[in-house]
Design brief:
three-stranded mixed beta sheet, binds iron/sulfur cluster
């Protein structure tokens, strides 16, 4: 399972430069560059939205991935040791991306 580094600080699942989910799905079936990928679990944190106070960052998590043109994609799972999801201040999922995407 990859170690995740996430900078999407506007996401409801964001915690300490990481994510509090146990798994995420990266989208981008036809991606040929990192810009064409995005985190499918992005959900914008809105004011007044109920926060989980016991939110704990999960440093290592299962990463499903539809970006089959990436060298790290193995049967729609990510086998990289470390990945970075970027998109600080994102408002929608398309403003996030897997910065670790490497085209085959
Ligand atoms: S590094 Fe590649 S396989 Fe892993 S999540 Fe990012 S795009 Fe998917």
């Amino acid at each position: 399972m990859p170690i995740l580094d996430c900078s999407v600080n506007t996401c409801v699942h964001y915690a300490d430069n990481c994510c509090c989910r146990r798994e995420i799905l990266v989208e981008g079936t036809h991606a040929h560059s990192e810009n064409e990928t995005c985190c499918g679990n992005f959900d914008e944190r809105r004011e007044g939205c109920c926060e989980n106070s016991a939110k704990e960052a999960c440093m290592q998590l299962a990463v499903g991935c539809e970006a089959i043109n990436c060298v790290y994609n193995e049967n729609r799972k990510c086998n990289a040791e470390h990945i970075g999801i970027s998109g600080s201040n994102a408002k929608i999922a398309d403003q996030t991306m897997c910065a670790s995407f490497r085209a085959r």
